[in-house]
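Usage

Read records sequentially. Each one opens with the input sequence:
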Amino acid sequence: MLRTVGAALIGIICVYTGFRAARGLASRADMLRAFIGVTEQMQREIGNRMTALPELIARLKSDRPQLSGFFGQIEEEWNKQDYLGFAEAWRKALAPIALTPEDKLMLADVGGAIGRFDAETQVQTLENALISLREHQQSAEEFRRQNAKLYRTLGFTGGLIAIILVL
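and closes with the structure output:
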């Protein structure tokens, strides 16, 4: 009896792990999609309205719930006594986000240009970033499509094998 319960628990854990891994593949694509929206909004705000950077960050923090923690951390780092520049605060806020190093490097370049150059250059930088973000997002979606089913199947198969071995 105890062996059967243990086998069932192991099987459930393996299946859960496979499904959780498959769901985790979508997080990168979702995060990149959120950054695409932010970049588009920044482009409009800087290009059309000439919004000041502190106001822009506060607006993005309230408008984008998925990235409110990111922009909150930028505000926090920026308002510290030992004042970090915007680029450094942006880079620091990127660290805990679940993206690949290539994604983070591309986004760090965006943070380095915002507030540093004239509005036209910033808008052009954001336009280039949008192109890159869309490419990264498409590759993340493709990777998710190719591998999500594999992860679920591996979890199920691993659970089945574990149950057979235990019993």
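Summary fields computed downstream for this record:
- The chain has one domain: 30-148.
- Residues 94 and 104 are 7 Å apart (CA to CA).
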